[in-house]
TrEMBL record:
This is ABC transporter ATP-binding protein. Residues 2-224 form the ABC transporter domain. It comes from Spirosoma taeanense. SUPFAM superfamilies: P-loop containing nucleoside triphosphate hydrolases. GO terms for cellular component: membrane protein complex; plasma membrane. Belongs to the ABC transporter superfamily. Macrolide exporter (TC 3.A.1.122) family.
Length: 226
């Protein structure tokens, strides 16, 4: 589903370049749950942003479902983003002025769905995440864990095939973090959503079926499971 071939990312620095990612080869199959780990500054978020089409590689090729992403037009890429990809951020990135309901509905406004279809999708997510009673509250009136649930519900609203999550539990207590990880596991196992998460936590990483590690922008060789 996801294939990176020799992908690098660099930024200009003085007369040279500073490399953030170097010669990354990575294959992720549909239905996998992959955890990306590595020290601070090793390039994890940059890699996730490239995978989630939020940034472009400087070199190399990214194939998503066999299609070379760099060759797509801006319009095709936006379309792909809206239909296939959900992104979950550590800091939630909810819209403060919108209610829980409206935040979850936002990605659906661009999809040309009927009002009743939108309503039923949001209702289904509110129900699944036990947030029905909170639907008219604003993000500031929720706990961190609840805000992240809304962030995930929003990411799922358009029924993406893959979720990219950048330290989704980084701001949460361990109980809330466990709840989010259990939810990811369920989405992966039951709904077949491919999940790629960046995490600093070994405990969270173990929820994934595979852990890939970055160091100084290099992908370390994967150890085979015992
Ligand atoms: N726009 C930019 N210009 C120059 N350097 C950048 C830019 N964006 C990121 N970097 C550098 O790229 C490196 C990797 O950043 P990245 O956020 O991907 O790391 P990370 O592994 O996610 O770190 P953390 O765990 O601390 O979030 C960092 O050294 C950072 O300073």
């Amino acid at each position: 589903m996801i294939q990176l071939n020799n992908v690098s990312k660099f930024y200009p620095a003085g007369f040279g370049r500073v490399y953030v990612l170097r010669n990354i080869d990575l294959d992720i199959a549909q239905g996998e749950f992959v955890s990306i780990m590595g020290p601070s500054g090793s390039g994890k978020s940059t890699l996730l942003h490239i995978l989630g089409l939020l940034e472009e590689p400087s070199e190399g090729e990214y194939l998503l479902d066999g299609r070379p992403v760099q060759k797509l037009s801006e319009k095709q890429r936006t379309e792909l983003h809206r239909t296939q990809i959900g992104f979950v951020f550590q800091a939630y990135h909810l819209i403060d002025e919108l209610t829980v309901y409206e935040n979850i509905e936002t990605p659906l406004l661009y999809k040309g769905l009927s009002g009743s279809e939108r309503k039923s999708r949001v209702a289904e997510l509110l129900d699944r995440f036990n947030m029905v009673a909170k639907k008219d509250l604003f993000p500031a009136q929720l706990s961190g864990g609840q805000q992240q649930l809304v962030g995930i519900a929003r990411a799922l609203a358009a029924r993406p095939t893959v979720i990219f999550a950048d330290e989704p539990t980084g701001n949460l207590h361990s109980d809330q973090a466990r709840e989010i990880m259990e939810l990811f596991l369920e989405l992966n196992k039951k709904d077949g959503v491919t999940i790629v998460q960046v995490t600093h936590s070994e405990v969270n990483a173990e929820y994934g079926s595979r852990i890939v590690r970055l160091k100084d922008g290099w992908l370390e060789l994967e150890k085979l499971a015992q």
